[in-house]
């Protein structure tokens, strides 16, 4: 009985050694990731798991349960980190040198070998400090008490991290803009940078934090003169301003993952002509600082309005929107327009895009959409006397919105909306219909025509080819 109890205590103590050492290594690694951009093994494990599970069907389920914000990614990262801790806590049952070797192998599958080696060495050092010789009496009791405090502290550290993650789950998402364009946006036609949607494959804390001084853009592959450009060198290129709308493939019917801005940057075609295009080149492959990959046929990439963007609406790009450089490809969904780009490769073959690899759209052309912004769908209390019109936006990428119709009676009849002058061929279309409603319930709906073709009524989920359907809701007026 005593021997069995001692063995039980022995294995528990070893597991505590493994847990404390692993939490310490993970905390130090997180600091190195946030301060020096060192690859972080739990993050890379999260990346691998989401890569395997990031299929449209899985995302549809996650979005149905958790919405389109960061909650799904937070839960996924928490699960990945829990797997990391639980699985590798068992290394405490191995001798320190053998456990460090096992950790080196695991990390070597996730991060560069030098990072894996440093991680294993730090782990070995911590384990060696914990593995003090067994001595009797009060010294042994004090050693166990210290180990208990270290384990409790490690548990609190993990719990604190979990609490921070859960705060992101239940707080309003910073990734999704409001589902309404807002009165100011409809008046100016432009979306403020602070209100522009942002969707990332990463947790926001792990988005790239690049500096102009250390950043450069490499142009490689099937070009005659491969070279790199600094941000300063790109800014002295002839500059172009293009007003264009960008919409996320995840945008739901009536959703807010869409914005319009005046983008500032240099012509991709001009840059490629400077380095010389090899006749064998057929595709442009983009690579970003966060590992994101996308591809575009060379012919499409050479169109006049494809830009390498460093600013918008008269301001530099923010970090979360791609500083120092992103791609603008009018007419394509946001997933085709990567941020934080660091390399442009010309190739005879397309790179398999990050989301394309998971079954999402390969071409990602914008689908015809329309949305009612005023009155707001989310408004709780509206007075009929204060409403003078119904207004909103419509967009179809490179196709022209030729007509917008609005129903005020549940699609029984339709009124043709007034289309405001379109400021750019790449920008959304703002529309409005005069309305002086009576108090009561009114079922509103909108539909648009692009190049004379009616927007499809069939409701389709946003994934994998972008959503479809007419925006419709009931507005209760007092």
Notes on the protein architecture:
The chain has 478 residues and is α+β, with helices and mostly antiparallel strands. The chain folds into three domains: 2-170, no CATH class; 183-358, Sulfite Oxidase, Chain A, domain 2; 369-477, Sandwich (Immunoglobulin-like), CATH 2.60.40.650. The chain contains eleven helices and 19 strands. It has helices at 2-36, 41-53, 56-66, 71-89, 96-108, 113-130, 137-170, 183-188, 231-235, 268-275, 298-301, and strands at 217-221, 227-229, 239-247, 258-267, 283-288, 293-297, 307-312, 315-316, 326-328, 341-347, 369-374, 389-395, 401-407, 415-416, 418-419, 429-434, 440-450, 453-454, 471-477. The strands form four sheets. Strands 2-1-10-5-6 form a five-stranded mixed β-sheet. Strands 3, 4, 7, 8 and 9 form a five-stranded antiparallel β-sheet that branches. Strands 13, 14, 17, 18 and 19 form a five-stranded antiparallel β-sheet that branches. Strand 1 and strand 2 (227-229) form a beta hairpin. It is globular and about 80 Å long.
């Amino acid at each position: 009985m005593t021997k069995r109890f001692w063995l039980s205590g022995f294995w528990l103590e070893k597991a505590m050694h493994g847990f404390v050492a692993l939490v310490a290594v993970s905390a130090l690694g997180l600091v190195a990731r946030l301060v020096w951009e060192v690859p972080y093994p739990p993050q890379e494990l999260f990346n691998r798991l989401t890569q395997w599970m990031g299929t449209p069907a899985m995302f549809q389920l996650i979005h149905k349960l958790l919405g389109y914000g960061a909650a799904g990614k937070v839960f996924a990262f928490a699960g990945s980190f829990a797997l990391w801790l639980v699985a590798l806590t068992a290394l405490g049952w191995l001798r320190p040198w053998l456990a460090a070797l096992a950790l080196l192998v695991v990390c070597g599958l996730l991060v560069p070998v030098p990072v894996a080696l440093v991680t294993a060495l730090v782990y070995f050092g911590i384990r060696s400090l914990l593995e003090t010789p067994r001595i009797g009496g009060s010294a042994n009791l004090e050693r166990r008490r210290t180990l208990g405090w270290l384990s409790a502290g490690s548990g609190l550290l993990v719990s604190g991290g979990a609490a921070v993650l859960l705060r992101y789950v239940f707080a309003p998402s910073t990734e999704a803009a409001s589902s309404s364009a807002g009165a100011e946006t409809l008046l100016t036609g432009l979306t403020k940078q602070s209100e522009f949607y942002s969707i990332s494959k990463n947790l926001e804390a792990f988005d790239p934090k690049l500096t102009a001084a250390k950043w450069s853009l490499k142009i490689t592959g099937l070009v005659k003169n491969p070279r790199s450009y600094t941000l300063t060198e790109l800014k002295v290129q002839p500059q172009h301003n293009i007003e264009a709308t960008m919409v996320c493939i995840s945008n739901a019917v009536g959703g807010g993952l869409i914005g319009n801005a005046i983008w500032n940057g240099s012509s991709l075609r001009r840059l490629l002509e400077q380095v010389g295009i090899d006749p064998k080149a057929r595709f442009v492959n983009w690579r970003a600082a966060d590992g994101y990959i996308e591809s575009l046929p060379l012919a499409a990439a050479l169109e006049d309005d494809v830009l390498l963007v460093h600013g918008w609406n008269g301001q530099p790009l923010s970090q979360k929107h791609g500083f120092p450089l992103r791609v603008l490809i009018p007419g394509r969904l946001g997933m085709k327009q990567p941020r934080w780009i660091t390399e442009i490769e010309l190739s005879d073959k397309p790179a398999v895009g990050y989301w394309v690899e998971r079954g999402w759209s390969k071409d990602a052309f914008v689908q015809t959409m329309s949305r009612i912004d005023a009155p707001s769908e989310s408004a709780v209390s509206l007075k009929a006397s204060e409403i003078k019109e119904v207004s909103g936006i419509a967009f179809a990428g490179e196709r022209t919105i030729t007509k917008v119709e609005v129903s005020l009676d549940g699609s029984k009849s339709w009124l043709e909306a007034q289309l405001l002058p379109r400021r750019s061929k790449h920008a959304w279309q703002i529309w409005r219909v005069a309305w002086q409603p009576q108090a009561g319930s009114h079922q509103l709906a909108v539909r648009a025509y692009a190049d004379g073709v009616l927007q499809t009524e069939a409701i389709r989920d946003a994934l994998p080819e972008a959503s479809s359907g007419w925006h419709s809701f009931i507005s209760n007026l007092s």
